[in-house]
Design a protein that fits this description.
Number of strands: 19
Strand content: 25-35%
Distance between the termini: 21 Å
Largest sheet: 7 strands, mixed
Structural class: alpha+beta
Bound molecules: zinc ion
Length: 303
């Protein structure tokens, strides 16, 4: 059994919203067990938006949430960092309706969480353990979830661009692999799309400081952080979007050419397919002969 965790102490940062271009202050604060991850709009008298799929609002170029009168946009990179570092309960307070983009990756949020430190709470963490495959496809985009003893992610992308014809990666996601191999990968976009986005009032805060921009033949930024930074960023987005399921996943996610729309539609579908998973309190199979604590379902042995 693993215990739920929260932050040891509050942490703050400031940045700009990728789409609004406005300055925003973000603070992460400790929260009690079973509180989950909730956004709190300090500028709206503290209205709260729990990070659940029921509150999904927008999926255009970023993932947004809404609850009653309050909304928050571009939540996916922060959510990915929180769930990957095992922060189950936290208040994310903002004075603006968009999470700051920082450098376009989740690395600044990993830093913030590490600075805060984590604290265990005396309540078991609950996982969603996949029992049967689930899948969803829209045209040539697809995503699936298979039984596995760990949270693993396989992602592949292909774009009509010389640098991005094919990138694929598989990784078992742990705190360390996320922090080292996924979190630093930045948001990317195509130069020809930037003007269109701006005409729609989006990407107003975007620059080479917070996004990898692709021109006709190459990257406009001085360098990439990884040769396959693009597919790693898609993995980051998928982890953040699937965090809206509300439980850490024990299973293998396989996605091809997906994006926020498909990730979040799949998150909703997974929760609806109640026969395909179980909620368990133990992330790994208990050694044979060792009884699990009372009330804990024995995870099925798979793979
Ligand atoms: Zn992203």
């Amino acid at each position: 059994m693993r215990l739920q965790r929260t932050l040891r102490r509050p942490q703050f940062c400031a940045g700009i919203g990728l789409h609004s271009g406005k300055k925003v202050t973000l603070s992460l604060r400790p929260a009690p067990a079973n509180y989950g991850i909730r956004f709190r709009r300090a500028d709206l008298g503290g209205l709260e938006i729990p990070a659940t799929i029921d509150n999904l609002a927008g999926i255009q170029y970023a993932t947004g949430l809404r609850c009653q009168q309050a909304s928050v946009d571009t939540v996916e990179h922060l959510l990915a960092a929180l769930v990957s570092l095992g922060v189950d309960n936290v208040v994310v307070e903002l004075d603006h309706p968009e999470v700051p983009i920082m450098d376009g990756s989740a690395a600044p949020f990993v830093y913030l969480i590490n600075e805060a430190g984590v604290k265990t709470l005396p309540v078991a963490r609950r996982y969603l353990k996949v029992q049967r495959p689930m899948s969803l496809s829209r045209g040539d985009k697809r995503i699936a979830l298979y039984p596995s003893d760990h949270f693993k992610l396989t992602y592949s992308i292909s774009f009509d661009h010389p640098l991005l014809q094919h990138q694929a990666r598989t990784l078992r996601i742990t705190e360390d692999t996320f922090a080292e191999q996924i979190a630093p990968a930045r948001t990317f976009g195509f130069l020809k799309e930037v003007e269109m986005l701006r005409q729609h009032g989006l990407a107003l805060g975007g620059s080479l400081d917070n996004a990898v921009v692709l021109g006709e033949t190459g990257v406009l930024n001085p360098h990439l952080r990884f040769e396959d930074e693009f597919v790693r960023h898609k993995m980051l987005d998928a982890i953040g979007d699937l965090a809206l399921i509300g439980y850490p996943i024990i299973g293998h996610v396989v996605a091809h050419r997906a994006g926020h729309a498909l990730h979040t539609e799949f998150a909703r579908k997974v929760l609806q397919e109640r026969e395909a998973w179980r909620i368990v309190e133990a992330p790994e199979t208990s050694p044979l002969g060792v009884p699990l604590p009372v009330g804990v379902e024995r995870p099925a042995v798979v793979n």
